[in-house]
Design a protein that fits this description.
It is found in: Membrane. This protein is an alpha+beta fold. The chain binds 2-acetamido-2-deoxy-beta-D-glucopyranose (7 copies).
Amino acid sequence: MTMLALLLPSLLAVQALGALEVQVPEVPVVALHGMDTTLNCTFSGVTTFNLSDISVFWQLSDTKRSVHSYMGGQDQLTEQDGRFANRTSMFPDQLTRGNASLLLRKVRVVDEGSYTCFVRVVDYSSAALILQVAARYTVPEVMWDTGSNPRPGDEVALTCLAYRGYPEAEVYWQDGTGRNLTDNVTISQVANDEGLFNVRSVLTVTLEPNSTYTCRLTNQLIGQESHASVIISAQSMVFPPVALWVTVGLAVCLLGLLIALAAVCGRKIKESCEEMKAAKEAKELEEDESKTAMTPLKNQS
Ligand SMILES: *[C@@H]1O[C@H](CO)[C@@H](O)[C@H](O)[C@H]1NC(C)=O
Ligand SMILES: *[C@@H]1O[C@H](CO)[C@@H](O)[C@H](O)[C@H]1NC(C)=O
Ligand SMILES: *[C@@H]1O[C@H](CO)[C@@H](O)[C@H](O)[C@H]1NC(C)=O
Ligand SMILES: *[C@@H]1O[C@H](CO)[C@@H](O)[C@H](O)[C@H]1NC(C)=O
Ligand SMILES: *[C@@H]1O[C@H](CO)[C@@H](O)[C@H](O)[C@H]1NC(C)=O
Ligand SMILES: *[C@@H]1O[C@H](CO)[C@@H](O)[C@H](O)[C@H]1NC(C)=O
Ligand SMILES: *[C@@H]1O[C@H](CO)[C@@H](O)[C@H](O)[C@H]1NC(C)=O
């Protein structure tokens, strides 16, 4: 009994019960480009220990480069790979609860890969997780090569553009009935300096009257589905929204101009009428005056 009581302080300090076990997510962790993510890593098999007795090493699984290290009760970042500088944190207050997770800030495409979480408290163990990066594409837009309005019968290259997504998108074209148009389609996905893809798909078609051409884009990893369409009307005219609004705008301007012109003209006409009226009145007055001037003469006679 006495012996046990004397031993208690050291038992509290380090108490390894059975084998240390490290757990990480089994499915890939998907993080959005530019956002922060937590790489979860928990361990069990140790109940009580002193913080200065635990070591945690986060490494890139393939190159063994250091992502973040914690040892002797503090972060050890001298060996840290430069590209993780200022972007990682652990949660020391969570370590005693068996949580050795790593916060990774401002995730980039190059961060994709396998990460190993290595934990040592007397015993040691490790586990690896996969980090996948994702980015939403911009809503696609459809354009055509000719400056003029395409008409039914024209052979036109319709271009579908979407930007800064990850990973590569699935892009396909459909007509108004939902039929896939797979002939005469070319697609290119080019990575920018951040590793994000700009997608360009070109469909060459002979335009059918009264039909719709839809470009559909899917980013499977994050379940993004978006689309853009062009409508070829029976009146053999295509109005892309911009051209439509420009036309409406011009029509409104023209109408405004006409109204202003009408108002100005109306006033001018009214003014000249009044001038004429005034002139007429003046003349009548003159005549009246000459009449009255004559009357006394009559009276005098
Ligand atoms: C990390 O674990 C917490 C708690 O179990 C959970 O809510 C969170 O979704 C996990 N994060 C990731 C990226 O798996
Ligand atoms: C570990 O702790 C951090 C910070 O509190 C938390 O965000 C994360 O979800 C925790 N992970 C697990 C697996 O509990
Ligand atoms: C942890 O260990 C350090 C150094 O060995 C010691 O100074 C400290 O008192 C210990 N803390 C606890 C809670 O046992
Ligand atoms: C990390 O932060 C320190 C201090 O804020 C700064 O001096 C250093 O340039 C930063 N390093 C990187 C790679 O951003
Ligand atoms: C059209 O093609 C896409 C991509 O290949 C596919 O997911 C979709 O099910 C197809 N739709 C039809 C109606 O065939
Ligand atoms: C594909 O292009 C060829 C040559 O320009 C043309 O003969 C053919 O009709 C086109 N196919 C479709 C489905 O538009
Ligand atoms: C065009 O489409 C409209 C509505 O879908 C339909 O009412 C009209 O009959 C069609 N015209 C031609 C020429 O196919």
